[in-house]
Amino acid sequence: MRSKPFIRTLFAAFFLAAFAVAASAQTTQVNGKVTLKQADGTVVPVAGAQIDIYRTDIKAEFHTKTNKKGEYIHAGLPFVGTYTIVVSAPGARPTFATKQRFTQSQQRDFLLQPGDGSNLTLEQVKAQEASGGAGGGGAGGGEAAPAAESKESKARREEIERKTREIEEKNKKITEGNEVISRTFKVGNEALSAGKYDEAISHYNQGLAARADEPALLTNLSEALRRRGVDRYNAALKLSDNDAKMQGMEAAKKDWSDAATHSLKALESVKTNMAAGGEPQQQQIYAQNRLSALSIRAQAMRLVATKVDQTQAQAAWDAYQEYLAAEPDAAKKKTYKAEALQTLFDAGATEMAVTQTRAVLAEDPDNVDANRILGLALFATGDKAKFQEAANFLQRYVDKAPDTDPLKQSAKESLEYLKTAENVKPERTAPARPARRRP
Do 350 and 377 touch, CB atoms closer than 8 A? Predict the structure, then answer.
């Protein structure tokens, strides 16, 4: 006998809170590893190596150091910049890399050679470059005795009793399970609403220990993990200690990966329940739960693709498309469609972002977000032949976007870069309108 699922409608957030990680659409990062080739030819990681990052198209500089494993990371770099990286460490010869842009690839590794441990200023780097330098379970009383029970009748009776006991035991477990799930679902949601994510996660896991495939708990556990991951990531960005920063970011990435896994389990469970049939009212609740699970999975996959593993860009896009196909609300569809395009761009899937954004603009040329994303994606290709088109779309976005749009200033900076550094002026041509269908 299969236990009946807990079919209460999910508590699920359909909005994207203004987390700092969600507001970094026009920033990028650089990360990598610094190693040293010793005199015997072995290569070892360099702890405490100094990483100096200079923006060279405008005056700005950023600094960090490697951890014990020789790893470093610096997030929040302006997307449009051109950079020079200078690496130095005790007992090593400094090295550098110039004309660096992090629009598609963010990893930069450095192999140092033994040296005097000196550092290089930006001016010295420029001078070396100019001179050709490289960086690198009795019958009673007087009553008549009962008739003897046949062997076959006894066997049948015992079998019926056994099955009855099994059914009673299963019903007892179902009742107990529903009580646990109802309790943990309620207190978990209260904790989630209050931003107490550790507490919410603990309660949801208690409920799943009673029934591992309960979709309501799986979906809300996914949401709690996603939000906790955002908090952890944003907190890590503020740390000055590089080891603590890396640990915080890894904890956030694990939360986002776990959120994606649990949301997928929730969807599979909901689909199984829907396929099993039931009353129309029950099916309606299943459909609502499926929509919530699809929405939360899309948001989890966005962070996986953009912050954990960029090879998951296609999987994130597919998650958004499955949700958009089920969402009846036009306003939500528009918001999530833009979010799906932004995910491709942030995940470095530049060519896919260009293709899909063009498809959106073919149906809706005035789509503000699509104009911005296409402009940035064309710019990110690094193909100068596409810079004119990039400037055109960015200008259309700047013209149409309200001043309250938090991304408008960043787009203006990208546009200004194209004008000044690349000498590309936007052409104010009206976008092509989609063809009208004849009656």
Answer: yes
What span, in angstroms and rounded, lies between the C-alpha atoms of 283 and 285?
Answer: 5
Question: Would strands 83-88 and 27-37 be described as parallel, antiparallel, or unpaired?
Answer: unpaired
Apex 394 CA angle, 418 and 429, nearest 5? 100
Q: Which two tokens stand for residue 367?
A: 């789509």
Q: Residue 144: pLDDT band by 50, 70, 90 thresholds?
A: very low
The single-letter code of the amino acid at 108 is R
**pLDDT 10s digits, 146-167:** 445 577 777 877 777 787 778 7
13 near 222, Cβ under 8 Å?
A: no
What's the pTM? 0.74
Amino acid symbol at 22: A
Rounded to an integer, what distance in angstroms lies between the CA atom of residue 391 and that of residue 425?
Answer: 7
pLDDT digits (tens, 9 = 90+) for 298-343: 999 999 999 999 999 999 999 999 999 999 999 999 999 999 999 9
Q: Encoding tokens for residue 244? A: 């603590």
Residues 6+ apart with CB under 8 A from 342: 25, 369, 373
Based on its alpha-carbon atoms, the radius of gyration of the chain, rounded to whole angstroms, reads 30
Helix (H, G, I), strand (E, B) or coil at 117: coil
Q: Residues with Cβ < 8 Å from 427, sequence gap 6 or more?
A: 388, 391, 392
Give pLDDT tens digits for 192-214. 999 999 999 999 999 999 889 99
Most confident stretch, 102-106, 211-215, 234-238: 234-238
Strands 50-55 and 60-65: antiparallel
Compute the distance between CA of residue 250 and CA of residue 129 in angstroms, rounded to an integer: 37
In 3D space, the residue among 57, 23, 436, 390 whose CA is nearest the CA of residue 234 turns out to be: 23
Count Cβ neighbours within 10 Å for each residue of 7-20 and write b for 16 or more, e otherwise. Answer: beebbbbeeeeebe
- Chain centroid to CA 167: 44
* Region for residue 333 given its phi and psi (left: phi exceeds 0; alpha: psi -120 to 50; beta: otherwise): alpha
Of residues 302, 273, 279, the one with CA closest to residue 215: 273
| Alpha carbons 344 and 337: distance in angstroms, whole number | 11
Show the DSSP H helices in 65-130 as ranges. Answer: 122-130
Contact by Cβ (8 Å): 79, 414: yes
Backbone φ/ψ region at 59: left (φ over 0), alpha (ψ -120 to 50), beta: beta
